[in-house]
Structures are given as structure tokens and as C-alpha cells.
Amino acid sequence: MVRSLRKSDADQWQSVRARNQDWLRPWDATVPPGAAPRPSSYKMVVRSLLHQARQGLCLPFVVEVEGRFVGQVTVSNVARGSAQWASIGYWVAAEAAGRGVAPRAVAMVIDHCFGQVGLHRVEICVRPENTNSLRVVEKLGLEQVGYAPRFLHIDGAWRDHRIFAVTVEECPEGITTRLQTHQSHQ
């Protein structure tokens, strides 16, 4: 299940992040030297995300499996006007990896973005070394549209990223349906 992030998710979020610190560290965004520090507590993170959501700049979602918090999908950098696009970032706990949870959650969020939110294009940027995330975009049928050297500060350094994107015209049946079709052909 994918649902909106809430302030009341604090204990579960902190617990999952603490248990998965080593699993997530190589892929987590970090603050480069000289930049403003990140929020230091879950409450500050959620406050920031929900503030941005009220402004229409992001959509933070929780990923649950059998009622347990196992990850997060965040739609960020929402651009309106003539662009109508956004970026998606996601993470899942190690125990949820390899079970189809991340592709399904990301597919549902993309469908929401194309449907209710009215976006035209969604982008996902992945480090070339992140084979798990590369498998997610492969399962979703997203095409690589670019390569960005030293794109994001991750795990203490500027890291290259492969850029994948999809437009609403490329999947009129929806990404969730595309994923189900892909899975049935395996």
C-alpha cells in the first residue's frame, strides 16, 4: 500500500531507518560542505515535506506491506506551467527488497502523478552502481534519457546518475498495468 506521509509515522520511520542505516547509506543524499544542514529530526523532516506538499512542490508517500512501514516514495521538484513534470526518489527496507515492493509502489505513485496530479512527465535518477534501483526502472519500462555526471551529493561525494523518464503518452494504460504485464511475461 502507498499512502501519504503523516507526522504520526515518526516512530516507525525512525525504527526502519535505524535498522537499515548500512543498507541505505550508499544511496542516501548527503549535504555537501558549505550547504545548509538537513533537518535533524523526523519531525523536522516531515514538517519540511508537508510544508512543501502544501505548496504543491512535493508529494511524500509511505510504503507499507501488511500494515508495516517499509519505505518511502517522494515526488519532488514538481514543476507546473509548460513543464508539468517531477522527480521521484524512493527507498525500501532491506527486508522488503527483491519482493517487487519498490516497483509496485513507484508504479502506483507515477499513475497518481499522471492521473490526479496531472503531470506529463516523471523522472527517476539512479546511480549507475545501484543495481536494485536499476532493476526497478527496468521493471517499470522506463527509458534512459540522459546521464548526469556529479549530479547529486550522495554518501559524502558528488555522484553520477543515469536519468530515466516516462511521459503519460508512453503508458496510456498506466505504469501499474505495464508492470503487471511485464511480470506476467517472466
From TrEMBL:
Gene3D superfamilies: 3.40.630.30. It holds the Pfam family Acetyltransf_3. InterPro entries: Acyl_CoA_acyltransferase, GNAT_dom, N-acetyltransferase. SUPFAM superfamilies: Acyl-CoA N-acyltransferases (Nat). Keywords: Acyltransferase, Transferase. Transmembrane segments: none annotated. The keyword Acyltransferase applies. One of its GO terms (cellular component) is cytoplasm. Residues 1-169 form the N-acetyltransferase domain. The keyword Acyltransferase applies. One of its GO terms (molecular function) is protein-N-terminal-alanine acetyltransferase activity. Belongs to the acetyltransferase family. RimJ subfamily. This is Ribosomal-protein-alanine N-acetyltransferase. The lineage of its organism: Bacteria, Bacillati, Actinomycetota, Actinomycetes, Propionibacteriales.
